[in-house]
Amino acid sequence: MAIRLKPLAEQVIVITGASSGIGLATARRAASAGAAVVMAARNRLALKQAAADISSAGGRAAFLAADMGVEGSAEKIADHALEQFGRIDSWVNNAATSLLSPLYRVSMAEHRRIFDVGYFGYVQASLVAAERLRAEGGALINVGSVLSNRAVPLQGPYSAMKAAVMAFTDALRMELEIQQAPISVTLIKPSAIDSMYIEHSRTKLGRPSAPPPPPSVLYDPELVAKAICFAAEHSRRSLTVGGAGLLLTAAAPLQPRLSDLFLEEMLDVEGQTGDEPPEPEAYDNLFEPRADGRVHSNQRERSPRRTSLYLAAQMHPLATAALAGGAAALGGAALMMLKERPK
């Protein structure tokens, strides 16, 4: 059965992890385009304020406080969306928790919590969403990471969880296609993002968490929101946000030993910590909700990049190919003219 996705302005979109960062940016962007948004996260006060802000700007928003690490949360969110707006057209799984630590210092309870929210939360929500979307069709969008393709030191549990998300998403896509379900399944893979993820992460490194150092590029959460909203309207297998992510998604798997050495050097303790402490109320949301409500982190040493040519190329491959072909043709014509010019 063919997949037909509605224009954003005609959609009802469920977004988990919507109280800050990528989720909040996505809710605002979708609502500004005319979509009705259903926002879910643990922090009820932050959700209530975000929904009020969207409504005061003329948008449509509902919210529900829910912990995606708790079984049954996805059913409650789906029921709430149907009660508020009558249907679901797109579902975005974005909720996650994280920890920066050497693996030998990570407890089994911390491992399980990261997987309960970021993997099993995605599993239950994806299956619930697929059932709700099966009749009329729609988009299921899972937020993975460039770490889905390549683990990095000191983020072992998070890397493993995002790798599991990618494998599950690929398997579900194939099964839905076998069943001829009219559901688009997209994996979004952000590079390093300037979101509250940095402050929310529990750390055992002795210093505040910080984004990866140069030559890594830090990207604006709005770029990920742009990719998610695009995937709600256009069927794509995956979208990587930020050209810097090519290093981990494409180059690193081809040269595993060289990438080991590079990542060990770049992302050691020094490379993942800094001098800017998180806001005390925001730090460590692994087991309990903490202060939310901001799209960006409190880091001020580096400005996030607001454009990504690589993302644009994935969103519009034909136009990109045409431009590249046109540039090559112009270059070839110029070379021929130079060769044929009288001497």
Overall description:
- It is a single chain.
- This protein has 343 residues and is an alpha/beta fold.
- 45% of the residues lie in helices and 13% in strands.
- It has 11 helices and 9 strands.
- It has a 7-stranded parallel β-sheet with strand order 3-2-1-4-6-7-9, sandwiched between helices. Strands 5-8 form a two-stranded parallel sheet.
- Helix 3 packs parallel to helix 4, helix 4 packs parallel to helix 5 and helix 10 packs across helix 11.
- The relative contact order is 0.14.
- The C terminus is likely disordered.
| Straight-line N-to-C gap | 63 Å
Number of helices: 11
CATH class: Alpha Beta
Unreliable sequence segments: 323-343
State the CATH superfamily name. NAD(P)-binding Rossmann-like Domain
Topology pattern, helix = H, strand = E: EHEHEHEEHEHEHEHEHHHH
Q: Quote the beta fraction.
A: 5-15%
Rg from alpha-carbon coordinates: 21 Å
